[in-house]
Amino acid sequence: MAPVEDDEYADEKPTTSASISVDGTNEKAIDITTQFIYERLSPKIATNLVFIGLLTLPEKMPLAFAQSYTPISAAGTEGQKHHLARIMATQFTSAGVGPGIEQTKKEHQEQYFARQQARKDGAVIPPTPAHVAADLAPNSEPLRTQAASQFAVPQMPVTKLKGKIQFNLIASVKDLSDDEARKLMNQAFERIMQNESTKRFMGS
């Protein structure tokens, strides 16, 4: 049996990227994350999510709100909990975070090492298709032949979402000392008296 050339497997590496676009993988990741969120979506957590959402409400109602809002009669039902968990899981998976992404990455790594072990044992393993290999490529560039580099698939840059910092009024202010409080009160009193004197002088 002729040895299999390593160049055929140059793109086959365990995935370290958060973005996985293999057919069915995203759907599986969403299902795992949906179940994870659903099991933890208690009334207390849902209430906290609403309070956090109030800080980011837009000035105008989004056009799609009428198609996605929760009727009062459906709030808290099992169907609505599943629906909300599914929406959140889809957003998490799209951002490359969540237990579903971690599980699928782990499975891809296990499959990769299993294929490598099978090759060492003499089994003939067909090379990974180019579009799949590009999605599973690690951060470090593998060694490629000149012919393989001509057909390299460009990868889209992964943007990191910046977390929003919640404004805490209590933590941002400090208590005034007695001297500072008296000084501010005196200044306010003097300003009021000055305005009254000006109004009397002007004949108001």
Describe, in plain words, how this protein is organized in 3D:
This protein has 204 residues and is mainly α. The chain folds into two domains: 6-149, no CATH class; 176-201. The protein contains nine helices and no strands. The longest helix has 24 residues, at 178-201. The radius of gyration is 30 Å and the shape is elongated. The relative contact order is 0.17. The model is unreliable at 1-11, 15-23 and 138-152 (pLDDT under 50).
Task: Write the H/E string, N to C.
Answer: HHHHHHHHH
Which descriptor suits the 3D outline? elongated
How many E strands? 0
Mean pLDDT: 71
Number of helical segments with 4 or more residues:
9
Specify Rg, calculated over alpha carbons: 30 Å
The main β sheet shows up as: none
Binned, the helix content reads 40-55%
Count of distinct structural domains: 2
Uncertain stretches: 1-11, 15-23, 138-152
- Taking the alpha carbons of the first and last residues, their distance comes to 108 Å
Assembly status = single chain
Structural class: mainly alpha
Report the portion of residues in β strands: under 5%
Secondary structure elements and pairings:
Elements: H1 25-40, H2 43-54, H3 65-68, H4 78-95, H5 99-120, H6 130-135, H7 146-149, H8 169-172, H9 178-201
Helix pairs in contact: 1-4, 1-5
Gist?
InterPro entries: Symplekin/Pta1. This protein has helices spanning 25-40, 43-54, 65-68, 78-95, 99-120, 130-135, 146-149, 169-172, 178-201. By secondary structure, it is mainly α.
